[in-house]
Amino acid sequence: MTGGLSVLDLILHASVVVQLVMLLLVGMSVMSWAMIIQRNKALNIAVEETKQFEDKFWSGIDLSKLYNEVSAKVTVTGVEALFKAGFKEFARLHKNSRQSGAVMEGTQRAMRVGLSREVERLEMHLPFLATVGSISPYIGLFGTVWGIMNSFIALGAVQQATLAMVAPGIAEALIATAIGLFAAIPAVIAYNKFSHKVEMLESAYANFVEEFANILHRQAMANGENN
């Protein structure tokens, strides 16, 4: 910057309040970027795992064999968790009752609970990104208003005011707004992107639950007729 000023100098010579605002915004930005990276990785894995499992599910594999494969995994998430919860509940209820209505009601209830848990897991950290995106500009604006206010108060204490006297104070105040926007913009973009991806996954999960429930219902009806 001209006039011997640099951004670092402005930050170091800013008032304590403005410095605290900048520090808060930088901290929020660092945390949001960490969550953006983590969520992006987690959602991409969820999309890929959903595609792989559905391909295997619709390949005609025996459901009992598929259930054993899924149950053997240490961690089961996503559509696999829905399949495991539904098939496990169906097998348990079907063993104790031949009423297909009661069996399917319990099975669908188990899968709905699983669906709710999986969506909650997918939405992890999204509220924080939404918060950063919505309040960061206002926090930065507060720092700007505070810095400009102090600059004009200082002007009132001198007989002859010049632009060179007020410029550093205004410049350091505007940095707070810039940092606020720097924190907010990526958070908003990431939140919108991730929300859309979560909606797509939730729709895929819900469709699988309905289709799987129909398959189990036909199986329950067929077993009931055979008995």
Structure, explained:
The chain has 227 residues and is mainly α. α2 packs antiparallel against α6 and α6 packs antiparallel against α7. The chain is rod-shaped. It starts with 6 loop residues before the first helix and ends with a helix.
Features:
227 residues; mainly alpha; 7 helices
Rg computed from alpha carbons, rounded to a whole number of angstroms: 28 Å
Supply the number of helical segments. Answer: 7
Helix content: over 70%
Number of strands: 0
Low-confidence stretches: none
Percent of residues in β-strands? under 5%
Distance between the termini: 86 Å
The helix-and-strand class reads mainly alpha
How is the biggest beta sheet arranged? Answer: none
List the helices and strands in order: HHHHHHH
State mean pLDDT (0 to 100 scale): 87
Q: Tell me, what's the shape?
A: rod-shaped
Which secondary structure elements does this structure contain, and how are they paired or packed?
Layout: H1 7-12, H2 16-57, H3 63-71, H4 78-96, H5 100-122, H6 126-155, H7 163-226
Helix pairs in contact: 2-6, 2-7, 3-4, 4-5, 4-7, 5-7, 6-7
